[in-house]
Amino acid sequence: MTSPVTDSTPEFQPCTITVLGGGSFGTALADIAARKGHVVRQWMRSEEQAAEMNRTHINQRYLPEYEVSEQIEATSNFDYAVSGCDLIFVAIPSQHFRSVVSRLQGKVGEAMIISTTKGVEAETFDLMSEILHEEVPGSRIGVLSGPNLAKEIMARQITATVIASEDEELCQLVQDILHCDYFRVYSNHDRYGVELGGALKNIYAIVAGLATALGMGDNTRSMLITRGLAEMSRFAVKLGANPLTFLGLAGVGDLIVTCESRLSRNFRVGYALGEGKSLEQAQQELGQVAEGVNTLSLVRAKAREMDVYMPIVDGLYAIIIENKNIRDVTSTMMMREQKTDVEFLLQDNIMAQNSVTH
Ligand SMILES: NC(=O)C1=CN([C@@H]2O[C@H](COP(=O)(O)OP(=O)(O)OC[C@H]3O[C@@H](n4cnc5c(N)ncnc54)[C@H](O)[C@@H]3O)[C@@H](O)[C@H]2O)C=CC1
Ligand SMILES: O=C(CO)COP(=O)(O)O
């Protein structure tokens, strides 16, 4: 049995927190909050899964190796789960996000709502916090994103995340709720950039998994991560995000962890593809969400519409959707026109400034 980390500081104020989603990340967040002494309800679709979790304190399907706090109350009763809570974390895969959060309408009073989902909606290209704005108008909204592999959080590996919102009070509350000796929460006001970073990096994790399975080296993976970052930032800037956000935990931080870790489901899908499995087989064997697969097609279409150069996205799409030969695609990518290393103009601005001051 793991020891509690209950917050015993005099200023500690227990909150009532609801987590929507019975998967790995929802469970990891519920566990942190419950161990800190908050009242935590975790909503999941399956009545049997909820009953089993309350009985055994183990999420058998998603995190069978870890015992969760006995203080988490799992429930399949949605209205009960969200009644009278102060804050809601939503950890539902992007494809089902709207259908679940639309049920919050008129039920949540003043509760703040935080999306933890790293994906894009197919029909609208909406990010999850935009869906929250549409489905629960008037609510206070934030996004939690960063290098946060659920299993490492459950193992109490030291981890940092980002809470992003224009709402300063919301950021402060989430920091207070989740901060403990193994989990640090940084704030950022660029909600859109933070959220976009979390969604985009999944694509490059698939590429990294694929490259690793094919026996490509560390030089290759480093190139993929760095050029992936350039591509992500280029795309995000075109959509109006701040490229500097991509230098933080929710950008390069999350990109590194998902491109380097075999715990990443997106990496694992890529790895399985590299072993010659079909996309369907890879997803089926995973049995959990790998958001990057859907995000890939959506981002490729959007990049074409906006005329953004994304060769890695194009290459992965050619391999896994158009079934092109991996070696041919890689060779075409390598033989493309040579580009400059760093493309943003910050450096030019600094040099221009220096030439004035020196
Ligand atoms: N697992 C991780 O390490 C992290 C995951 N995330 C993000 O969190 C989101 C959720 O991921 P996980 O919890 O890992 O996924 P998961 O695959 O472990 O679990 C997904 C959960 O959503 C539930 N679900 C699916 N459709 C539903 C519906 N229509 N109604 C109600 N529940 C439904 C499933 O039953 C399951 O409990 C994803 O967008 C992921 O990118 C973010 C950070 C870390
Ligand atoms: O977002 C994550 C880590 O920050 C989890 O990545 P996967 O969804 O690829 O497992």
From TrEMBL:
Residues in Glycerol-3-phosphate dehydrogenase NAD-dependent N-terminal domain copies: 17-170
Coiled coil: none
Pathway the protein takes part in: Membrane lipid metabolism; glycerophospholipid metabolism
Residue intervals of the Glycerol-3-phosphate dehydrogenase NAD-dependent C-terminal domain: 190-329
Sequence positions that bind sn-glycerol 3-phosphate: K118, G146, K201, D254, S264, R265, N266
Binding-site residues, NAD(+): G21, G22, G23, S24, F25, G26, A150, R265
Positions that bind NADPH: S24, F25, R45, Y62, K118, A150, R265, V289, E291
Chief localisation class: cytoplasm
UniProt keyword annotations, A-Z: Cytoplasm, Lipid biosynthesis, Lipid metabolism, NAD, NADP, Nucleotide-binding, Oxidoreductase, Phospholipid biosynthesis, Phospholipid metabolism
Catalytic residues, chain numbering: K201
Residues reported to bind substrate: K118, R265, N266
Gene Ontology CC: cytosol
Function comment: Catalyzes the reduction of the glycolytic intermediate dihydroxyacetone phosphate (DHAP) to sn-glycerol 3-phosphate (G3P), the key precursor for phospholipid synthesis.
Family statement drawn from the similarity comment of this UniProt entry: Belongs to the NAD-dependent glycerol-3-phosphate dehydrogenase family.
Name of the featured protein: Glycerol-3-phosphate dehydrogenase [NAD(P)+]
Organism the protein comes from: Parendozoicomonas haliclonae
Taxonomic lineage of the native organism: Bacteria, Pseudomonadati, Pseudomonadota, Gammaproteobacteria, Oceanospirillales
